[in-house]
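Late entry, evening session. Most of the bench is empty. Finally got around to the prediction I had been postponing all week. Sequence below, unchanged from the version circulated by S.P.
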Amino acid sequence: MIHDALYWAEQLKNKKISFEELLTLIENKVERENPQINALLTFAKEDAKKQYEASKNIEQTPFAGLPLPLKMLGQDKKGWLSTAGSRLLKTNRAPASNHFVQALETAGLIPLGQTNAPEFGFKNVTDPTLYGNTRNPWNLNYSPGGSSGGAAASVASGMFPLAAASDGGGSIRIPASFSGLIGLKPTRGTMPVGPAGFRAWQGASISFALNVSMRDTKTLFYAIRGTEKAAPYQAPKVEWEHTRSTNKKELKVAFVIISPVDSEVSEEAMTAVKNAVSFLTKEGHRIEEISLPIEGKKLMQSYYHMNGAETAAMIEELSYNLARPIEKEDMELMSWGLYQYGLKQSAASYIHNLNTWDQAAAQMEELFENYDLLLTPTTAYSSPKITDDLQSNTIRAQLAQIQNYSLKQAGDLVYEMFDKSLRFSPFTQLANLTGQPAISLPTHLTNEGLPLGIQFVAAKGREDLLFEVGELFENNQQFHLPAYYQ
């Protein structure tokens, strides 16, 4: 039996292991694994003990007191560090626990530490100047992805069976693909938000987790899903009553292997999708290859536009709170570039770009009137090496002078800044901008023995279909999980 999160929850519920014994077991794994992968930044053993001892009837919750790590980005626990991977905030501590963390705790999960993330979550690798590189447990020469790279490495290494994560452009699904894990990005508006940051990149960013079993994914989703009255985004409740029986009818699945931004897709990624198509066909489902009904490059430009504007607002708030101007030397060049790009934008152009998202959302929901699911590669390639330079000295030199550029020049530079990264992961951003749920499943290993995931996307509120297809692959032994879970 796989030692997933619910396995350990059952051990706790049935008194086969005590909370103290489980803490010691985890601590030993952390001491053995973390020095080489740099996934975990803090380890709050005493805090976890106190919280467990103070919890009433925790054995009756779904996770029964299971420890998990939070992401050092947007997942605040009162009194803990809240740095967002940035030197600007390296001593900052959270004044309160946010609603997502409170929901995890209500589900019976006990925060035990915090995982590494790139500065402000802008990258699909995890290499903040403040904390250094996180390495992939499959091969230490490679990245586990980002921005939830520390979370992915903490699960793939076996330190934790489940880790809190977040996804604003693929930041759960990319590390899931690179690290051989399951990574769900839920429908916009399904997860608890607030009391600060209710909009989270205008709804593009959402918190959930990385894990190794579909039952963990389902249990966590249904345990913490909910609508808050103050939340600006509300998910449609088309599936809240579990209306579809898993054996009722065939699934109709559209698939795409062409990059939406016209970049190359590796043979391995295409093979992963083609193998999934063959499997689904053999299982009696209807599969059709289609072209995506969206303008991929235009959508990415609107995404970067949002990144810039949101970064400018965030940095200006930091400047106010710190009572001093924020300088280029305070942050990494990527953050500086987005900040300066944001300062050049108008309110009208920002609204225009959000309208672009809404148009794409309407086009995608129209697609889901004809198909149950959309299948793509999660990433176009397996993980980059730690030593791979995803920018260039030329781009870095230009970013250092971006404050002197025109709006168009700055926008072009930001697109170029992300170009090499986008080539690795051109398929994930769409679901963030349109609000649909998407899941990465660990179904493929490359010839080099590295994982590479496939992605399923569904209509808003149809996580049930993602769980159904995930269980189909899992129950038929189609997953390639990290060695610790085999």
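Two things to note before I forget:
The CA atoms of residues 22 and 189 lie 34 Å apart.
The longest strand covers residues 438-445.
Will write this up properly tomorrow.
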